[in-house]
What does this fold into?
Amino acid sequence: MSTTPKSKKNTRYQAIRIKLQGWFNSRIERHGNSITLTGRSIYVIPTRYGFMLACMLFGLLLGSMNYSNSMSFMLTFLVTSIGILGMHYTYGNMVQLKIDAGNCPPIFAGQNAKIPFLLTPLNSRPRYGLFLGDADRLQQPGNVEKARSALCFSTEALSRGRYQLPRTRIWTTFPFGIFYSWAWLKLDQSVLVYPQPQSFMQHLESEGLQQGEQSSNRKGDDDFAGIRRYQETDSPNRIAWKALAHSRELLSKEFHGTTDNNIWLNYELLTQLEPEDRLSQLCQWILDCERDHLPYGLCLPGNTIDIDLGERHKKHCLERLALFEVR
It folds into this structure.
């Protein structure tokens, strides 16, 4: 089968792009979650305004030579020297800058992951007008004085799992906007992405749930069963104040009764849904149970999480959903 000239051109373009990306990646200094920008990793080129200024100065130089005008010569050399000085300031705004990737809290699929970058100057020079990400997106500039400052990088995570921070850039055009200086960042940082909560079934009472049958395992308000660590979703009426006075630790009273049923969220019972839709439905039910203060457990193939309630339990269940491998 013969290839068209357009397909050959696209193939050649892809090959050149792969080589350029490999060259860029080989020049990135990686040190885990931290990188220090040096001269080898910083690039400087003129912006379109810089090219316009260069053309204007070239025309001014030709006019000065044609008319032998000393004042015109002086203006040309003065503006040229200011432009060259601006290039050095643009470069100096990036060099000897230490960048650390901060922690990003877990998000749901489809949300923006906002990853903080901590910038620390290794010399006494303050930094102004720093940006993260693509130059075509409207952003707020960041300034770094003598102390550590933070810049936030926002990127959309579309699928659940462990989202690896993509290669991005830090750039500046300070002070005159006629030179563009940038450096590539590729840090070992990731974000945990939960499944997107979606409701494919109207009610919790559906085939995906198993109700507990033994009254001894049901949680109610009839019989005192002991005390446990306080959780954010617990009622203030259940705080064990006497235990707090002795241990100085916030504890909560726990009761067992026969009024409520335990809820088991079972992946295997959602046979009418696709695997990813099952995880989204389970994610929605977990949020609903926490909202309604209903104790629940999670059943996944090869992994079972016992009945409980609270912020720690919710995060544990959502983490298992995010890292679950569909077979």
